[in-house]
Protein backbone atom coordinates (compact mmCIF):
# COMPACT_ATOMS: atom_id res chain seq x y z
CA UNK A 1 0.00 0.00 0.00
CA UNK A 2 1.35 3.45 -0.94
CA UNK A 3 1.03 5.97 1.91
CA UNK A 4 1.59 9.71 2.42
CA UNK A 5 2.18 10.89 5.99
CA UNK A 6 1.45 14.47 7.09
CA UNK A 7 2.72 15.24 10.60
CA UNK A 8 4.48 18.40 11.76
CA UNK A 9 6.44 16.67 14.57
CA UNK A 10 9.52 15.18 12.92
CA UNK A 11 10.01 12.42 15.50
CA UNK A 12 6.43 11.17 15.08
CA UNK A 13 6.63 11.49 11.28
CA UNK A 14 9.87 9.47 11.19
CA UNK A 15 8.47 6.89 13.62
CA UNK A 16 5.34 6.38 11.54
CA UNK A 17 7.47 6.04 8.41
CA UNK A 18 9.67 3.38 10.02
CA UNK A 19 6.68 1.50 11.43
CA UNK A 20 4.80 1.45 8.13
CA UNK A 21 7.78 0.53 5.95
CA UNK A 22 8.63 -2.20 8.47
CA UNK A 23 5.16 -3.63 7.87
CA UNK A 24 5.74 -3.78 4.12
CA UNK A 25 4.06 -0.53 3.10
CA UNK A 26 5.57 2.09 0.81
CA UNK A 27 5.76 5.55 2.35
CA UNK A 28 5.73 7.71 -0.78
CA UNK A 29 6.15 10.98 1.14
CA UNK A 30 6.33 12.24 4.71
CA UNK A 31 5.59 15.96 5.00
CA UNK A 32 5.19 18.56 7.73
CA UNK A 33 2.33 20.83 6.66
CA UNK A 34 -1.01 20.86 4.85
CA UNK A 35 0.29 22.53 1.68
CA UNK A 36 2.99 19.88 1.33
CA UNK A 37 0.33 17.21 1.96
CA UNK A 38 -1.75 18.43 -0.98
CA UNK A 39 1.32 18.52 -3.23
CA UNK A 40 2.45 15.04 -2.12
CA UNK A 41 -0.99 13.52 -2.73
CA UNK A 42 -1.14 15.11 -6.19
CA UNK A 43 2.34 13.84 -7.05
CA UNK A 44 2.24 10.33 -5.56
CA UNK A 45 -1.48 9.44 -5.71
CA UNK A 46 -1.34 7.33 -2.52
CA UNK A 47 -3.81 4.67 -1.44
CA UNK A 48 -3.93 6.21 2.05
CA UNK A 49 -2.95 9.49 3.72
CA UNK A 50 -2.19 9.55 7.45
CA UNK A 51 -2.86 13.14 8.50
CA UNK A 52 -2.30 15.13 11.70
CA UNK A 53 -5.32 17.34 12.39
CA UNK A 54 -3.44 20.34 13.83
CA UNK A 55 -0.63 21.52 11.59
CA UNK A 56 1.32 24.73 10.93
CA UNK A 57 0.97 27.62 10.65
CA UNK A 58 -1.91 28.05 13.15
CA UNK A 59 -2.01 24.53 14.62
CA UNK A 60 -5.82 24.52 14.54
CA UNK A 61 -7.42 22.40 11.81
CA UNK A 62 -5.22 22.78 8.72
CA UNK A 63 -4.64 19.03 8.41
CA UNK A 64 -8.33 18.26 8.77
CA UNK A 65 -9.34 20.85 6.18
CA UNK A 66 -6.73 19.56 3.72
CA UNK A 67 -7.93 15.97 4.24
CA UNK A 68 -11.54 16.99 3.61
CA UNK A 69 -10.55 18.74 0.35
CA UNK A 70 -8.51 15.75 -0.77
CA UNK A 71 -11.26 13.29 0.15
CA UNK A 72 -13.86 15.20 -1.87
CA UNK A 73 -11.67 15.01 -4.94
CA UNK A 74 -10.95 11.33 -4.45
CA UNK A 75 -14.65 10.50 -4.10
CA UNK A 76 -15.45 12.19 -7.43
CA UNK A 77 -12.71 10.30 -9.23
CA UNK A 78 -13.44 7.01 -7.41
CA UNK A 79 -16.72 6.77 -9.32
CA UNK A 80 -14.80 6.49 -12.60
CA UNK A 81 -13.93 3.09 -14.03
CA UNK A 82 -10.27 2.26 -14.66
CA UNK A 83 -10.78 2.86 -18.39
CA UNK A 84 -12.47 6.22 -17.74
CA UNK A 85 -9.50 7.21 -15.56
CA UNK A 86 -7.16 6.21 -18.41
CA UNK A 87 -9.14 8.38 -20.82
CA UNK A 88 -9.19 11.31 -18.37
CA UNK A 89 -5.43 11.03 -17.81
CA UNK A 90 -4.85 11.29 -21.56
CA UNK A 91 -7.29 14.21 -21.75
CA UNK A 92 -5.12 15.88 -19.09
CA UNK A 93 -2.13 15.39 -21.39
CA UNK A 94 -3.99 17.41 -24.02
CA UNK A 95 -4.81 14.48 -26.29
CA UNK A 96 -7.73 14.58 -28.71
CA UNK A 97 -10.35 11.83 -28.75
CA UNK A 98 -8.71 10.39 -31.87
CA UNK A 99 -5.30 10.31 -30.16
CA UNK A 100 -6.83 8.73 -27.04
CA UNK A 101 -8.50 6.07 -29.19
CA UNK A 102 -5.19 5.26 -30.85
CA UNK A 103 -3.25 5.16 -27.57
CA UNK A 104 -5.77 2.89 -25.83
CA UNK A 105 -6.63 0.76 -28.88
CA UNK A 106 -10.28 1.82 -28.75
CA UNK A 107 -12.70 3.02 -31.38
CA UNK A 108 -13.36 6.74 -31.61
CA UNK A 109 -16.98 6.08 -30.58
CA UNK A 110 -15.86 4.22 -27.46
CA UNK A 111 -13.73 7.18 -26.41
CA UNK A 112 -16.67 9.54 -26.96
CA UNK A 113 -18.82 7.26 -24.79
CA UNK A 114 -16.16 7.23 -22.02
CA UNK A 115 -15.84 11.03 -22.16
CA UNK A 116 -19.62 11.40 -21.86
CA UNK A 117 -19.61 9.07 -18.83
CA UNK A 118 -16.75 11.05 -17.25
CA UNK A 119 -18.74 14.27 -17.60
CA UNK A 120 -21.82 12.64 -16.06
CA UNK A 121 -19.95 11.10 -13.12
CA UNK A 122 -18.14 14.36 -12.37
CA UNK A 123 -21.44 16.27 -12.44
CA UNK A 124 -20.61 18.33 -15.52
CA UNK A 125 -23.86 18.79 -17.48
CA UNK A 126 -23.90 20.28 -20.99
CA UNK A 127 -23.55 24.05 -20.83
CA UNK A 128 -22.99 26.85 -23.32
CA UNK A 129 -20.92 28.79 -20.80
CA UNK A 130 -18.54 26.02 -19.67
CA UNK A 131 -16.04 23.82 -21.45
CA UNK A 132 -16.67 20.45 -19.80
CA UNK A 133 -13.46 18.87 -21.06
CA UNK A 134 -11.37 21.58 -19.39
CA UNK A 135 -13.43 21.34 -16.17
CA UNK A 136 -12.98 17.54 -16.05
CA UNK A 137 -9.22 17.86 -16.53
CA UNK A 138 -9.01 20.55 -13.84
CA UNK A 139 -10.89 18.26 -11.44
CA UNK A 140 -8.43 15.47 -12.26
CA UNK A 141 -5.38 17.68 -11.75
CA UNK A 142 -6.42 19.57 -8.62
CA UNK A 143 -4.48 18.58 -5.50
UniProtKB/TrEMBL annotation:
CDD domains: LuxR_C_like (cd06170)
PROSITE patterns per the UniProt record, alphabetical: HTH_LUXR_2, RESPONSE_REGULATORY
Name used for this protein in its record: Response regulator
HTH luxR-type domain sequence ranges: 73-143
Annotated positions of the 4-aspartylphosphate modification: 52
UniProt keyword list: DNA-binding, Phosphoprotein, Transcription, Transcription regulation
Organism domain of life: Bacteria
GO biological process: one example: regulation of DNA-templated transcription
Keyword Transcription regulation included in the entry's annotation: yes
Short name of one Pfam family: Response_reg
Domain Response regulatory, residue spans: 2-143
GO molecular function: DNA binding
Nucleotidyltransferase as UniProt keyword: no
InterPro entries in the record: CheY-like_superfamily, Sig_transdc_resp-reg_C-effctor, Sig_transdc_resp-reg_receiver, Tscrpt_reg_LuxR_C, WalR-like, WH-like_DNA-bd_sf
